[in-house]
Amino acid sequence: MSRVVSKNLFDFKPAGKLDDDVAAIYNAMEEGTFSSGAKEIAERMKELLGREDEEANKEYIVLFRKTVEVVVDMVDNNPAYAGVAERVVTSSITVPTTHDGEFDVPVEVYTPKNLEGKKMRVGYVYAHGGGAVSLTAAYERNPLSKYAADNDLVVFNVDYRIAPETRCPNNIKDFYEVIKHVHTNAESLGIDPAKICIGGESGGGYICLGAMVLLAQNNNSNMVKLAIPQIPMTDDYCFSDPLVMTLEERKEHLMMRKIWKHYIAADWEEQKHDPHLFPGKSSDELLEKFPPTIMVEAEFDFYITEATRFAGRLRRAGRLLELVIIPGSPHGVAFIPGVKGCKLHWDVMDTIAREYIHGDF
Fold it and tell me: Torsion-angle region of residue 178: left (phi > 0), alpha (psi -120 to 50) or beta?
């Protein structure tokens, strides 16, 4: 593959500290005043991080899923999404798979009303966040509907199976099969097969990266015009020495160790060097086969080191178009309504849609 050429559209200066508005919200979360019972749950989860027995792991994942419900509430109650459902036609498809039993992957589809019935539209296949162990596609229905309507995209919001009920590599294979389905059935879906893009954030960023590994391994990267992993779980950096980590990485490294080792991995010893589990461990030769990529990160994300390191390798391999780092922002700022970083994130995503998804490069 020929080297991609960046338009160099983003050059934000680091803030050096969290924006004041989002810092206040994060402080409330840490103090347990953001939602009822949050402090007690956080304390119990901290206790469970020190244990690796099956009983502790079962309790921890239940509590983890409860904590992310706060994020769901923030997204659902964001006034920026008022009326967005009226701007799109919401439908659904299922994609049959056999890689982990017979399972039809549910996919929500958001079509801007002005594109209804038209052909050769741009498709955006997306994996929701949640650490690959929580949430469903419905969590990002509102922001993705708005993104579709604002940018003339048909969005395919994939409800891939999550861990630990479904483990690596079958979760990334769910997403990969949907990409193939959209490409194979582009004509009937009204999609231009040359304009299929993929993305995902956080755990969904990992799912996106894992699918990129499969695309490269199967010489199918030509199915994808552009990949946009955002704040992605990338490799096993959380297992390194906490003394070299950023503050945010150090705070969350035990949580991430548990998630990778006890929930996502099917066989830790067998898979810990496998790029299906850790896409950041892809060989240089494999990276050269990746789709063109834009990596979107946040200055104070707890995946910042692993994601930017991987972006550097993609640049060296000739597959990186842009590395965007939202200044003054933490993990998940795109879903914190009313803060500066949230607006900047979606401004960036709109620019990506205009200049890269719809534009030539």
Answer: alpha
In angstroms, the CA 290 to CA 223 distance is: 11
Tell me the C-alpha distance between 333 and 244, whole Å: 24
Ramachandran quadrant class, 288 (left: phi over 0; alpha: psi -120 to 50; beta: rest): alpha
- Are 337 and 78 in contact by the 8 Å Cβ rule? The answer is yes
Q: Of 281, 243, 288, 279, which is closest to residue 127 (Cα–Cα)?
A: 279
pTM of the model: 0.97
Instruction: Please report the DSSP string for 77-118 in residue order.
Output: T-GGGTTGGGGEEEEEEEEEE-BTBSEEEEEEEEEEGGGTT-
Q: Are strands 103-112 and 88-97 parallel, antiparallel or unpaired?
A: antiparallel
Rounded to 5 degrees, what angle do the CA atoms 170, 293, 172 make? 5
Q: How far is CA 191 from CA 39, 169, 256, in A?
A: 47, 28, 37
Tokens encoding 173: 């294979």
Angle at 139 between CA 282 and CA 293, to 5 degrees: 30
Under a CB-based contact definition with an 8 Å cutoff, are residues 316 and 4 in contact? no
Q: What CA–CA distance (Å, rounded) separates 359 from 7?
A: 11
CA distance 3 to 309: 19
Nearest to 356 by CA among 53, 187, 151: 151
User: What is the spatial distance between Cα 170 and Cα 172, in angstroms, rounded to a whole number?
Assistant: 6
pLDDT digits over 191-220, tens only?
A: 999 999 999 999 999 999 999 999 999 999
Average pLDDT over residues 214-235: 98
